[in-house]
Design a protein that fits this description.
The protein has 398 residues and is of the alpha+beta class. It contains 7 helices and 19 strands. It has helices spanning 2-19, 21-31, 103-138, 144-177, 224-236, 368-373, 389-397; strands at 42-48, 52-73, 78-83, 90-91, 96-100, 179-181, 186-188, 198-199, 206-223, 240-241, 248-252, 263-272, 278-285, 297-314, 325-330, 336-347, 350-355, 362-366, 379-383. The strands form 2 sheets. It has a 6-stranded antiparallel barrel. A hairpin with a 5-residue loop joins strand 12 and strand 13. It is elongated and about 145 Å long.
Length: 398
């Protein structure tokens, strides 16, 4: 904030100095040999701008989410006998996780099988009776009513067999539910119940949660104004798309380090949140080693486009303003003048410049306070070198 106000004062001082140049010229000429010696040029750090292809990056807050989340529940009532997995381990779909007391379901299954056998025996008896009555009915040795009763008994026996088979299938399913298996592959959390607990009585008791963590979803939001500006820049040709495939996504962790694997953008929401003015986006991030966990907060670095022939400037070289963004340009005579520029986003700690500068021009990065104290003095451009993190830390310790 202090430098921003300092740059503003510097711009005002430079404009005032230009207005007073004509008045002071006569005074300087009349001073002649008696005038004080001129001050030496003030050294200032500058960077020379060059054209280059620059990816346009957006850094947005995001939250990790599992691709799949399944709640493991008890689907039949009973006493929990065993836990068959290690908490926090990876499980496969269909792997047994819990064992519920299955004695009553085994008895019900055996009873259903016996009922099915009885129904099948009855069907065999009624079928044999109908086959014996057929020639007798043709010879009119029995009444039509007797033959009809035999046919009705056969159909009833067939229905009893079908009902018994359905009962056996139901008993088999309930017996299978006594062994609780994993519905999906993934990482299972802690057990929510212990051995000896009555589960599934009146409701499907939740026993554990499985989350698929490879890959992971990254959910984040972007202001709708940024989306509109990006689309306008792409339509005008100022920017070009980053690639034919989905936009590349990088993730920075809380400690500032960047996750080594690259993700891809899946979709952006078609609607804007009316309360926040944000558009929801989702990316997919590989996580083969399980280093990332669902719920983690990350910084999403999204490569949305590419500037063909853009320029990069350190952020401290640019003064952001409500009317325009400006930089201080040093000419061949050592004079400093403000220059409005057009920015196209940020890349790390640098601004992407889309217009206002020419290749080879020198932009001042530091030395603003010296120039502000002597706005009429000439400057000596010196190549600017960024201060490393270790050097800044040692300077702070001194």
């Amino acid at each position: 904030m202090l430098r921003r106000f300092g740059w503003s004062a510097l711009v005002v001082s430079l404009l005032a100095a230009c207005g007073q140049g004509a008045d002071s010229a006569a005074g300087n000429a009349s001073a002649g040999k008696g005038a004080a010696p001129a001050m030496p040029p003030i050294p200032v750090g500058v960077v020379t701008v060059q054209l280059q292809n620059v990816p346009v990056m957006s850094e947005l807050p995001g939250r990790l989410e599992a691709v799949r989340t399944a709640q493991v529940r008890a689907r039949v009532p009973g006493i929990l006998q065993k836990r068959l997995f290690a908490e926090g381990s990876d499980v496969k779909a269909g792997e047994p996780l819990f064992q519920i007391d299955a004695s009553t379901y085994k008895a019900a299954f055996d009873s259903a099988q016996a009922t099915q056998a009885k129904a099948e025996a009855n069907l065999a008896q009624t079928t044999a009776l109908v086959e014996r009555y057929q020639p007798l009915q043709a010879a009119k040795a029995i009444s039509p009513q007797e033959f009809l009763n035999a046919q009705v008994a056969q159909r009833q026996a067939q229905a009893d067999v079908a009902s018994a088979k359905a009962a056996v299938q139901t008993a088999r399913i309930n017996l299978g539910y006594a062994s609780v298996t994993a519905p999906i592959s993934g990482r299972i959390g802690r057990a929510l119940v212990t051995e000896g607990a009555l589960v599934g009585q009146g409701e499907a008791t939740q026993l554990a949660v499985i989350q698929q963590v490879h890959p992971l979803y990254v959910n984040f939001t972007q202001p709708v104004n940024d989306v509109l500006k990006l689309r306008q820049a792409l339509a005008s040709g100022a920017l070009k798309r980053a690639g034919k495939d989905a936009a590349a996504v990088r993730v920075a962790l809380d400690d500032g380090s960047e996750y080594p694997l690259q993700g891809k953008l899946l979709f952006s929401d078609l609607a804007v949140d009316a309360t926040s003015g944000q558009v929801s986006l989702r990316a997919e991030l590989p996580n083969p080693q399980g280093l990332l966990l669902p719920g983690m907060y990350v910084r999403v670095r999204l490569e949305v486009a590419e500037v063909d022939g853009g320029m990069l400037l350190p952020q401290q070289a640019v003064t952001r303003g409500a009317m325009a963004d400006t930089v201080m340009v040093v000419d061949d005579k050592g004079q400093v003048a403000p220059r409005p520029i057009k920015l196209g986003g940020a890349r790390g700690n640098q601004w992407i410049v889309l217009g206002g500068l020419k290749p080879g021009e020198q932009v001042m990065v530091d030395g603003f306070q010296k120039v502000m104290m002597n706005p009429k003095a000439t400057v000596k451009p010196v190549p600017w070198q960024p201060v490393s993190a270790s050097a800044s830390a040692s300077a702070a310790s001194r």
